[in-house]
Design brief:
0% strand
């Protein structure tokens, strides 16, 4: 794997972890100060605004990343492509903002005050150009520029959110951090693109392909955002939304570790595919599969082991249901990791959008049906089961579509060492938990014991992923 890909992976991983990790730093405080009911309201209203952002954005973020990757070596072309996509997104987002304002901001509902604040979130997304830098494979700027904004938002939470009555302040800190983070990226543009030249702009040539990407984006949101929306709409107790959202938040943070490589490789594979080097494309894919196995299996077994001690220590009293939800949701680390490789890293960059769309539409249909059947009876637990089944269907469909592209039996066999190491690690963690059943000592001890066992076994088995990491550490040590 090239040095630029490794660097971009680390930059993107840092940014994605920062985006999810900083809220987790505040969660033990916020969960105690605001409570499950207020967090449920927060999650529910955010899921509503997220749908408008989805419809306003169409499939522009993913499409824009790919298109910039195709023309990144030509400043003239990337400039015109950038402005065409930005203007198109502004037009479609404006329509979404108007509808959101009429339906929720001026409408008669219990959460109108929060929807007024979330209007700024929609405005902030008009200015989101992170896709441009991802297309250029320049992840350093998004990391360094947004880090200060994210850290400032954490400070503001501890300063301004002091009781359950400060929920509006919590909303405001969230939307202002998005607005400031997106605005900051525009400062880098003058050195990268020319100004808009109206005679050379063909804005609506991008409309049809973005709509084509929009369809799978809708489908994906059905089993991400819609879960919370359906729980909030079906179950009167908004605490159920809070339990589900907190469990998802922990698992999704870890999922970032698994999928960050896909965000980096998507523009690289698109560029490699455009140059006709399919052998290199398949080389990237083989390494991606191994990375998913290497990371996802120990994380799944780790969640199952530590959740009993982690939840009360992290969230405080009143969140016992999260202890059950986290292990139930954890298989998505492997499932989404796999579909990220076959779908985002392979089908989309190689212009096989139809197969990708079918896979996610299948998942959304399965998820909606499972939610409708299970949420009325089992609440957040039913939504968690539905998510896992939906992600399984997506992965299976994508494997079917790529059955002739990869040697799948060889891919499956390469899982063996990671599953074995993860299972032995799990046994070691359970043994430690038997002697130290609760508290942070139990959590930290299990993580340490698990990491030592897992890495030791893979080193003894001469696993290529471990040896690549060890070689990287050695090289860095020599440079110092």
């Amino acid at each position: 794997m090239s040095q630029s890909v490794k660097k971009n992976y680390l930059y993107n991983l840092t940014y994605q972890l920062l985006t999810l990790l900083l809220p987790l730093i505040t969660t033990p405080y916020v969960s105690r100060v605001l409570g499950a009911q207020n967090l449920g309201i927060y999650s529910y209203t955010l899921s509503v605004s997220a749908f408008f952002i989805l419809f306003g954005s169409l499939g522009i973020a993913m499409y824009g990343q790919r298109e910039i990757a195709f023309v990144r070596d030509n400043r003239e072309k990337r400039s015109s492509t950038f402005w065409e996509i930005v203007i198109l997104r502004a037009i479609t987002m404006l329509a979404a903002i108007v509808i959101f304002y009429i339906a929720f901001v001026t409408g008669n509902n219990d959460y109108r005050m929060y929807y007024r604040i979330l209007l700024l979130e929609l405005i902030g997304n008009v200015l989101d150009i992170s896709w441009f830098f991802q297309g250029l494979e320049d992840f350093r700027k998004t990391v360094t520029r947004n880090m200060a904004v994210k850290l400032l938002s954490v400070i503001c939470i501890f300063v301004f959110v002091r009781s359950g009555e400060d929920l509006p302040a919590y909303f405001l800190i969230y939307v202002l951090s998005i607005l400031a983070g997106n605005l900051s990226l525009w400062l880098y543009l003058p050195k990268l693109i020319f100004g808009p030249r109206h005679a050379k702009l063909h804005i609506f040539r991008h409309f049809k392909p973005t709509v084509a990407l929009f369809i799978p984006q809708i489908a994906i949101q059905v089993y991400t955002i819609l879960d919370r929306t359906m729980i909030g709409a079906i179950i009167a107790d908004k605490s159920e939304v809070g339990y589900y959202d907190q469990a998802q938040k922990i698992v999704k943070m870890l999922l970032t570790v698994v999928t960050s490589l896909g965000t980096v490789l998507m523009p690289r594979i698109a560029h490699t595919y455009a140059s006709g080097d399919m052998e290199k494309v398949h080389d990237y894919m083989r390494k991606s599969f191994r990375a998913v196995f290497f990371l996802s299996f120990p994380l799944i077994f780790g969640i199952i082991s530590v959740s009993e001690a982690f939840v009360p220590a992290f969230f405080g009293a009143g969140y016992d249901k999260v202890k059950i939800l986290m292990p139930v949701i954890s298989p998505i680390l492997f499932l989404i990791g796999m579909s990220n490789v076959t779908g985002t890293q392979y089908l989309l960059p190689t212009m096989r959008q139809k197969e990708y769309t079918i896979s996610v539409l299948t998942g959304s249909g399965v998820n909606f049906c499972m939610n409708a059947l299970m949420i009325p009876h089992f609440g957040a637990f039913g939504a968690s089961i539905g998510t896992v089944i939906a992600e399984t269907s997506v992965t299976c469909v994508q494997i079917f579509f790529t059955r002739h592209d990869f040697q799948w039996m060889r891919v499956v066999r390469s899982m063996g060492s990671y599953l074995l190491a993860s299972f032995v690690m799990f046994a070691g963690c359970l043994l430690f938990r038997h002697f130290v059943p609760s508290g942070w000592i139990s959590v930290i001890g299990q993580v340490f014991v698990g990491a030592v066992i897992y890495s030791t076994i893979l080193i003894l088995m001469k696993d290529p992923c471990v040896h690549m990491l060890l070689n990287a550490v050695k090289k860095r040590g020599r440079k110092k």
